[in-house]
Amino acid sequence: MRGKKKRIILLAVTVAFIWGVFALQAVSAQEKTVVRYMYVAGGSYDEMNDALVPEYEALNPNVDIQLEKGKWNELARKFAIATVAGNPPDIITLPSSEMPRFVRAGLFSEADLKMIGAESMEELKSWYIPGVVDSLLMMGKLYHIPTELSADGLYYNKEHFEEAGISGPPTTWVEAGEIGEKLAIWKNDTMQRAGFWLSGRGYAATDTRMILTPMFQNGLNLLSKDGAKCLLNDQKAVEAIQKIYDLWHKYRTDQSGFLEHAFYWDFFTSGKVSMMMHNNSALRRIRPRRREELEQDPLPFELVTAPIPVIQGGKRATFSFGWGWVVSALSNHKDEAWKAIGWFSNSENARRCTVDWGNFVPRKAPWLDEFVENNPLWKPFVLGMETGVLDCGISNPKFFEIASVCTGIMDRIVLGEELKTILDEGAAEINMILADI
User: Fold this and answer.
1) Alpha helix ranges (H) inside 146-263
2) pLDDT tens, residue by residue, 255-275
3) What is the pLDDT of residue 151?
4) Residue 249 above 60 pLDDT?
5) Cα–Cα 20 to 30 A to 173, which of 32, 53, 105, 284?
């Protein structure tokens, strides 16, 4: 009897212990804060989140980050639909060009510097390359932290330059035209090789930056400071855009329909293009970040990069584009969301994003200096970020409509219509769009 009694007591204690463990786990699960995080599916973003999210949850066991994926061109629509339904994700990654309309509608939470880990805006600015944080502001406020940022630079085929007796890249748009003219190859009035390929004709983002980059350099933005008026037909704008017009018609560095944007890296690496302007994302295509990929498919020539040309006597300025983390204004867990973003974007994780996953994050840190030293092709792009104008300075909810007008303007420039007329009519069209906001 005594042994039986002991077994009963032991069984009761065991059951109580197991029940207590399960109860404790249940309480722990109930106490976890669920943060929904929607991001662009595939490639480097899968790699990044597969690594960072479990690490963050291990450091913060009271937080459960639930991942949701979407295609790059569907994220904004999915976020809008979820917001209308009253159930948006807490965190979402979006391209910077999609953000202004949501900012204007009050659907994003302003960045919480304290939860990110910065005591002030000045401290946050000190974490990044000079000029970067200022370029991220929308309506004078910060709403996102970059997951990656890119700026334009010049790519050129060194062998083509040497064959033509050209010692180095152009520094001004006039030089770009003169050098591009020497490098271009024609046969029976049909282009065989572009001297300076104006990559991506017909692609709104490319058309927009080709028109507006020289405007920035000439001290002018597309829109007035209050965003109410288009400045395309200002005399300084006409003078600046004339430089792009001349590439087509005076120097004939490119020909309409010569190449398609989608395969720019194939055309460049196959020698059909001597020089082109593109952002640093092209490095991932032209020169893969994984050494084994480069060894399997090496470049047939020496690739060189340089800063983009500038207006003679103008300031250095370039186009920048990015993706970033934002927090929904409807989130019930804004503190937890911004805290997670602060950790995702810290200096060490920015290094991993840049070096391991290929998403360049312009943090000012010793690792960045080392990265540029080991990857000298990146130097012009890093410098470009200091003078980058995010999304052509069109921090506007009608960004895509305005960019579409710019494509129409480039179509007419290529056809050789009178430039002032093109810009007068383009400005009038954009002003109609602005009046409808």
Assistant:
1) 158-163, 173-183, 204-217, 235-249
2) 877 766 556 677 788 889 999
3) 87
4) yes
5) 284
Contacting residues for 423 by C-beta, under 8 A, at least 6 apart: 232, 233, 237, 238, 241, 409
Q: Rounded to 5 degrees, what angle do the CA atoms 13, 18, 20 make?
A: 90
Rounded CA separation 24/63 (Å): 16
Secondary structure tally for the chain: helices H, strands E: 20, 10
For position 396, what pLDDT does the model report?
A: 73
User: Cα separations (Å) of 352 from 138, 337, 349, 356?
Assistant: 27, 21, 5, 5
Give the strand pairing for 318-327 and 91-95. Answer: antiparallel
pLDDT for the residue numbered 10: 45
What is the Cα gyration radius of the chain? 26
Domains located in the chain, CATH noted: 33-150+320-392 (3.40.190.10), 152-318+395-435 (3.40.190.10)
Tokens encoding 108: 């994003």
- How many Å is the maximal CA-CA distance in the chain? 110
Tell me, what's the pLDDT at 202?
57
Asked if residues 124 and 136 have their Cβ atoms less than 8 Å apart, the reply is no
| DSSP-derived secondary structure letter, 300 | S
State residue 11's pLDDT score: 43
Query: Measured between alpha carbons, how far is 32 from 53 in angstroms, rounded to an integer?
Result: 15
Contact in structure between 426 and 232 (CB atoms under 8 Å): yes
> Taking a C-beta distance cutoff of 8 angstroms, is the pair 322, 96 a contact?
yes
Region 127-134: what's the mean pLDDT?
90
Lowest mean per-residue pLDDT among 9-23, 43-57, 197-211? 9-23
The SS3 call for residue 156 is: strand
pTM equals 0.84
